[in-house]
Amino acid sequence: MTAALEIEGLVKTYQSLFGKPRVALDRLDMVVARGEIHGFLGPNGSGKSTALKTLLGLLRPDAGNMRILGQPVPRALPAVASRVGAIVEAPAFFGNFTAYKTLSLLAKAGGVPKDRIGIVLDQVGLTDRAEDEVKSYSLGMRQRLAVASALLKDPELLILDEPNNGLDPAGIREMRDLLREQADRGMTVVISSHILAEIQQVCDSVTIISRGRTVAAGPVSDVLAVADRGTYRVRVDDHHRAAQILADAGADVTVAGDHIVVRDLADAAWVTRALGLNDFWVRELTPVAQLEDAFLSLTGGGPRRGQFRPVDNSDWPAQEDFVDSPTGDVVEHGRSS
Ligand SMILES: Nc1ncnc2c1ncn2[C@@H]1O[C@H](COP(=O)(O)OP(=O)(O)OP(=O)(O)O)[C@@H](O)[C@H]1O
User: Fold this and answer.
1) For atom 13 of ligand 1, which residue has the closest CA?
2) Model confidence pLDDT, tens digit, residues 284-296
3) What's the predicted TM-score (pTM) here?
């Protein structure tokens, strides 16, 4: 069976009248199998939105091949558009329209049967507020209304850029259940996110990008296995002193709350020996395999709002290029620590 989404060698450079061109996508590759929930992960400014907008025909690519539901895009977009639901930018709703009226207009414009409105309102948990004006909605409720609008067509492929933005923990859980329900019905779901724990819980597979390039892809368990390069959590009495002993012995150690994290360990027994020789007895020695760790080790740093977290500068424009973020926030220069 063909993949729901395929991107191969996608290149996109933003031209600027005054500054240097900015390479946002640098031969990006991505494949999403049908029926799965796929996480599209990357630090701020790594190119996620650019990739999704290019895929959906909102930006023109410089090079590369893309297919949606087996059809080459952007050429075949008119043919596949009715089978794809997407939110790549926060949609602007009329504040004095109700959710029902908003969805009615969208349904009418898209030739969607009216009975879909009640179904999607129910799916996103807005039935009780359907007759309230959108201006009275919280950010999370607007987010759910946006998802409802994307679900109207009952699409085969649903693409959501940062769907959890503005949602509280309960809202995030509801969104997760909603996406899982859709996937169980056969819908393919692609979500971009920085909320790594969330991706780990909901996604079957991931593509991790950094600076416009794919750095890891595959089933979540495979990506975790690759990234699990001997990272262990160690619990011991007086963990500050124990961390010092391990650091003095040459280990890559950080103290994290009430435990120690030791990285790049070839043999976990080394920790037990090194501490035992100093009369420290290990109470816990557990391998750590979290998507967060995979993400950090693959992209070289954690996502921070409005900041770039470069990985390797070898073939990337000079540091002075990294001065503006799309949000206008302060931007970190150079390699992350
Ligand atoms: N309209 C634009 N003009 C010029 N450069 C842009 C434009 N939009 C994005 N960029 C640049 O392209 C790169 C990728 O940005 P993009 O928004 O695609 O990343 P992202 O991974 O979606 O980031 P975020 O997680 O912060 O939304 C960044 O260097 C960004 O500054």
Assistant:
1) 24
2) 888 775 566 666 6
3) 0.73
